[in-house]
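STRUCTURE:
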């Protein structure tokens, strides 16, 4: 069992969108601070792009979650210790939660000029970054230490039954 082509495409698409969001955050942060202080909202093309990409992350995350619930995920490699299997499962579900909540907190912050939502957005984004680092480290351990070739699951779709 492996991931479907749709799951793989969505994984890499969301990864690229999240990377772009990290690169584009300064423009919207500045515009938000200015708007909260009573200035212009500064809805520049970069701000609009950040908002739009956030909506895409949210939509694609819901789609990924639906695919996960309907198609499942491949079992962990046998070389993975049991405690790490549970941690891995928890981390994957944490991705779904964070990738759904972060765009919502960002939208509430931006469209309502809500500082609490902006603070939550920042904290959740930092948590996502930490989870990404953990995820990449785990993939590296699988690939280079345990030699499970785990990364192939996200490069090649599973053969159909």
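SEQUENCE:
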């Amino acid at each position: 069992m492996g991931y479907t082509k749709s799951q793989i495409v969505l994984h890499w698409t969301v990864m690229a969108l999240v990377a772009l969001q990290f690169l584009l955050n300064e423009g919207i942060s500045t515009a938000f601070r200015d708007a909260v202080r009573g200035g212009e909202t500064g809805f520049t093309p970069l701000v609009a792009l950040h908002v739009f990409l956030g909506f895409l992350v949210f939509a694609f995350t819901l789609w990924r979650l639906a695919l996960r619930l309907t198609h499942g995920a491949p079992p962990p490699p046998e070389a993975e210790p049991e405690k790490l299997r549970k941690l891995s499962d928890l981390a994957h579900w944490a991705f779904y939660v964070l990738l759904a909540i972060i765009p919502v907190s960002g939208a509430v912050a931006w469209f309502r000029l809500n500082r609490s939502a902006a603070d939550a957005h920042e904290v959740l984004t930092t948590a996502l970054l930490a989870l990404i680092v953990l995820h990449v480290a785990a993939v590296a351990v699988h690939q280079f230490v345990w030699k499970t070739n785990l990364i192939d699951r996200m490069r090649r779709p599973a053969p159909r039954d």
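REMARK: The mean pLDDT is 95.
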